[in-house]
Specification:
Number of helices: 5
Bound molecules: guanosine-5'-diphosphate
Number of strands: 6
Distance between the termini: 24 Å
Helix content: 25-40%
Structural class: alpha/beta
GO molecular function, one term: GTP binding
Keywords: Nucleotide-binding
Organism: Pelagomonas calceolata
Protein name: Ras-related protein Rab-5C
Largest sheet: 6 strands, mixed
Radius of gyration: 15 Å
Strand order of the largest sheet: 2-3-1-4-5-6
Length: about 170
Amino acid sequence: MSAARVCHFKLVLLGDTAVGKSCLVVRFVRDEFFEFQEPTIGAAFLTQSVATGAATVKFEIWDTAGQERYRSLAPMYYRGAAAAIVVYDITNKDSFNGAKSWVKELQRRGDPNAVIALAGNKADLQSKRKIDYQEAQQYAEENGIMHIETSAKNDTNVKSLFHEIGTYGLSIK
Ligand code: GDP
């Protein structure tokens, strides 16, 4: 019997501060959630594997700090990345604008074959929603990227997000 194929995927998380990037990673890797997640300084590195039909995808995840002063470091993390998750907070319009600027930068300067996924996080806060699902979906379609709404808090769509990136990434490799 041959060993299962393992594909390594460098993945970077980008987006404004406090949209929930670290919480998404901690939910995915450790299945935990903290209301008072420690802020990321510079960037944090974690790994997690996902079994897809075709292979096991081992994600090498770079969780970047959202603060403006670290913005110039971002190319170090997205360069050579097979995938990027650009996160916004569905209750924060500015964070959606921030996400759009990250998508633009990735499309200009990142790997042209990288999978880009736009994640509208904090989907549990429906009553505070400022960004319609449809608006973000349309933006994603126009820009040829994936879009999904997640809640790190309620564990909604977090595994699906990574699974879909892995499956799609393998299909275009
Ligand atoms: P980052 O700066 O983008 O890495 O954001 P963090 O992961 O540090 O999260 C910022 C704040 O948002 C923390 O207080 C989290 O508890 C909260 N948070 C993160 N994800 C969610 C979510 O899905 N729902 C809600 N309601 N709060 C969240």
